[in-house]
Design brief:
By secondary structure, the protein is mainly α. 41% of the residues lie in helices and 8% in strands. This is HNH endonuclease.
């Protein structure tokens, strides 16, 4: 997680329009990491996939390699919908930042149900 993002400052950080654009590194900075991770996971570079944040930037995730993983599959991927719904719930103060971060890090497929953000 990005330690600078807290429940008390979400309105001026992750809930502020354009936040992720400011903190997302350029592809040129992540290409080397992506190649190394894909090789480590045995994923061919031609496989449809993305280097994804376990906890998305829009939920206060960091760009640290410990928060990055190769996510094979179609783009956009189903996890993006979950991230967007959690972001909306956090920014409308229906779900706490910590609850959203913990739920998506544990299992993104159940994160909406666990937090109640899917209702």
């Amino acid at each position: 997680m990005d330690d600078a993002i807290t429940q008390s400052n979400i309105d001026s950080t992750i809930c502020s329009s354009g936040y992720t654009t400011k903190v997302r590194p350029p592809a040129s900075a992540t290409d080397k990491i992506k190649r190394a991770m894909y090789a480590a996971y045995g994923i061919a570079n031609s496989t449809p996939s993305e280097l994804d944040h376990l906890v998305s930037l829009e939920l206060g995730g960091s760009n640290d390699t410990a928060n990055l993983w190769p996510e094979p599959g179609p783009l956009p991927n189903p996890k993006d919908t979950v991230e967007n719904a959690l972001h909306k719930a956090v920014c409308s103060h229906k779900v706490t930042l910590t609850a959203a971060q913990q739920a998506i890090a544990a299992d993104w497929t159940t994160a909406l149900a666990v937090t109640g953000a899917g209702r």
